[in-house]
Fold each of these.
Amino acid sequence: MAKSKKRDQWEIEGDAHTLVEAELIKKDKGRFKDAVTQLTKENAARKEAIKP
């Protein structure tokens, strides 16, 4: 099944924004630390949520 060009463009734009944000976060050590802390909390919550 072929993807639509509109969907491809949406994915490209989303990826571009994500990459720009990642670069900005990498350059700001405090922001990077806060982002890692947030991701750690979210991952722990997901792990807890899927426990049998």
Note: Helices lie at 5-27, 29-49.
Amino acid sequence: MIYLLVVMPLVLAQKQCLLGRDSGEFCDKPGGQRFFFDLRTKKCQPFYYKGCGGNQNRFDTSDNCMAICSNTKGSTATAIEAVCKSGAYAAGATTLPEPLSCEECPKGYECEDNLCCPTKEYLCNLPYDAGRFGDQGSHRPRYFYAKSYHNCMLFTYYGRDGNANNFETYNECKAMCMS
């Protein structure tokens, strides 16, 4: 019993350290500089937080971030690229060792075949995000829905982070956002 009381909070804390950077959304709350744990570099990196939303990999100071995340184990190279029926990546699929469970679905996602999949309304309104290079340094052509053009556009995805507005084919993008 004591083992569970000591180990469970550590496991939960380290899981938040596996999440990718999420700047959140602008709202009536003040934003500002925060820190996230970058699994690739094993360091806490600064980013601008918009004030609302985001995920739990967000800390007020670099010291607080390192205190919680410095012993985090994991590799971005082993991330499972779980893909939803729509062709979009499931939540956590490109940033975690495994995708998030249905109990952990963030706002804008719903459970589909045991994966947290983005809703059409959420996904098709996300801005373009090319992500950044993962551990392997690979990149590949993908498609995103450009709301201002009411069309799907080609872009280069760098293999890590980014967002759910990211499809392998034009037809997958079209089926999700233009139907």
Note: The chain is about 20% helix and 25% strand.
Amino acid sequence: MKVLNGIECIFDQYLYDEHGLNCFLAPKYLATQTFNQEYPDLFYLYFHLFFHYNFNPADRDVPPFYHHDLDSIESYLLREKLGLETVDIHIEDNLVEKIEENLTEGWPVFVPVSKKAIFYCEEYLRNDHPHLILVKGYDRERSRFVIQDGEQLVSLTNSRPYPALRTKIGDVCSEFYMLYETMESGFNMYSESFDYMNGSIKAMRAVRAPVIDSSLSALIDISDMILEFAGQEEHFIQSKLEYLAHSDNELIMAYISSQKILFNILLHFISRHDHDPSHVEQIRILMNECSGLWKKLTNIVVLNAGRKKAGLGNSSSSMITSLSGEIMEMEIRLLKDIAKIGAALKTPV
């Protein structure tokens, strides 16, 4: 029997309904514990940093803006910040063998499955729902894998489907066992219905020494990135404003909500290292105001998209312009304050 150390039932307060997460991202958040107990928050911090701010000048090897390729953001932050990578492993009737092989090497494994084949829930039996399983161990004698997940807890309620790990209070993921044949059934059914990761699994591996290995080094790193463009802070925000102002994507509400993860982790890290309560409170207020303005703007954009589809005119262009200006001003203040805090931590008095 082989079970990886470190992947525990950590409490994750990031909620799917409120913060726009998905069940293909959260297992990687959990899996990074294998390498460092601070990595989960660092993984979410950098993912949503690049998800929301355009750190992509011509001379920097950073993935393109968020809506082009989320996998490129994930790959970049794992490799360049945490010293990790996820590798694709093609499967040809050897799923069990490949999972065991990578776990034996000490690498957590991610397997895409269809919930219909695994979890008992009326909705799952009617429709295909994709899910990514984090496998952290195996017991060959009993032909079962050791899984870290929360979907089995949700499915027990037979409620409408929620992404894995999602509850009203946060992550209540737990360790449980899954038979080899059940995993194979879920994987095969997924391959029949979905294109992403079709016929393959992923493993997370350490490939180099991490550049960022703590909350302190992350705050300093983010400060350095912001200060590199001092006086040009609008660079980080403008492309996001332009995208939202012309978007009719139904997922943009979830996208804007996901900014709360970035703000929550940043505030948590700042409160850990900046011992002046007034600084922390000032940042908290700015973050809340920014979140509120982004949501107002997004609501208007979604409303306009609906009016356009109905053949009606756009009556909110002036409001969008006004809100965009407020957001730009507020975001620049926030970025400057974050940069100052990180710089002070780099050179403490």
Note: The first strand starts at residue 2 and ends at 3.
Amino acid sequence: MRLRSGLLIGLFGLVVVLLGGWFFTIAIVLLTYIALLEFFRMAEFTGIKPATKTTLFSCFIITISTYLETIGFLDREIYNSILPMCSVGICTWLLLQPKSGTISDIAASIFGLFYLGFLPSYWIKLRAIESTMDNLSEGILSFESFSNSTGLYLTLISCLLIVASDIGSYFIGKSFGKKALSPISPSKTLEGLIGGIICSILVATFFGFLLNWQNPILIGILYGMLVSLMALVGDLIESMMKRDAKIKDSGTFLPGHGGILDRIDSYIFTPSVIYYIIIILKYFS
């Protein structure tokens, strides 16, 4: 059951990334909707009462508006105003409740907006990066004749690097792991972290040569290491929240895998970092 679920998840992810556009956007809306429900469920286990419906709607608005901005339908200034306006809306909703909200209620709601609304929306920005940045075929991260598909390649490669990192950290950690990495997740080891980083770097370097990037080894090391570390951060953040809520899994949506948040936690922090690293590299190239 676990293997079957894993294969279906991988196939679903591949199809929506290849299709892009509204298919990819709606897929992110659905995944983050379920994940946010799971996150708020964990928060409620600790006595917090977040603005669930308002935050869910706000995350929907952020995700859809991100896609509309990438296709030029929404002005950038209007797009930039959406996150703060949604934050104000959430706080206002909490203020209007019969029972006054607490600092924890506000913090959990705003963090949910950022964690499962704003950050995942960068997958849409990354997938459509060639529409928002000029001359991506030039510079240190060159795709040459593939410049019109840069977003597709970066999205697929980033996802593959996360998978490679997970596989490497699991097998190396299981075989050679001795030194615990963090008390938050005792099963994770320093040796597993190193194994995950190495696997991610190897895969990134392979694609660097395959796609004729300038300095494929240097970019492969930077790209692979960043993705692996961001995947780890996402994993540990969710582990910390589950530990606080005293639960093993965020949900039961996926047989053998737990909840949606358990599956996408490694993918939450990655796209924003990669997106801005590309901007920085292009600026200095």
Note: The chain has a mean pLDDT of 88.
